[in-house]
Amino acid sequence: MMLLASCCMAVVTSAQSIPMVEIPSGSFYMGSSGLGINFDEAPMHRVHISRPFLMSQTEITNAQYEEFCPEHKALRGKYGFSTDDDEPVVLVSHDEAMAYCRWLSVKEGKTYRLPTEAEWEYACRAGTLWKFYMDDKLPAVYHRNQEIVSDLVPVKLNVATTPANPWGLYDMCGNVEEWCLDWYGPYV
């Protein structure tokens, strides 16, 4: 099973091959203490990923998604970001991300899907115990997220321009939000 995440993270074995990374099975502590802005990620709890899986090395790019949905090109640059072929595709709904996975599965003859929230967080942390895989604070090199909407300053979001995590995945922190297979909900 190959997992996709931005619209998702994925693989395509056509001329625009998307490199995949094997994520080992293992256990980790998912969530946070619930203090501060991440109150909805509590309680922190142990999760076991029972089987290894493949995940795309980067987010799905505009060029990759537009093989499936050429009309998406009209949305590039909306709100001033994600204009280049190698920037992650944005302005894609969960239903559209799922449709991309189904299309890719048929095209490649393999099963593709979005990662679950647990798989995504496990892959992001890459065997570390920190909030982010490199530290408990996000270093400045990863700060590309526009937080002050009234003072929007377009930023480049090109994939794989910041260091990869220890498992070889890029842009797991600080680039764009990514869809997961399961819907957001409180931990039980």
**Largest sheet composition:** 4 strands, mixed
Order of helices and strands: EEEEEHHEH
Backbone structural class: alpha/beta
Mean pLDDT: 80
Q: Tell me the strand order in the biggest sheet.
A: 2-5-1-6
Number of alpha- plus pi-helical segments: 3
How much strand content do the residues show?
Answer: 5-15%
What is the helix content? 10-25%
- So what's the overall shape? globular
Low-confidence stretches: 1-16
CA(first)-CA(last) distance: 27 Å
Total count of strands: 6
Global Rg = 16 Å
Characterize this entry briefly:
The protein is α/β, with parallel strands linked by helices.
Description:
The structure is a single chain. The chain is of the alpha/beta class and 188 residues long. Strands 2-5-1-6 form a four-stranded mixed β-sheet. A two-stranded antiparallel sheet has the order 3-4. It is globular, with a radius of gyration of 16 Å. It starts with a strand and ends in a 63-residue tail after the last helix. The relative contact order is 0.23. The N terminus is likely disordered.
Would you spell out the secondary-structure blueprint of this structure?
Elements: E1 2-3, E2 20-23, E3 26-30, E4 45-49, E5 53-56, H1 62-68, H2 94-108, E6 112-113, H3 117-125
Parallel strand pairs: 1-5, 1-6
Antiparallel strand pairs: 2-5, 3-4
Key attributes of the depicted protein:
two-stranded antiparallel sheet, 3 helices, disordered N terminus, alpha/beta
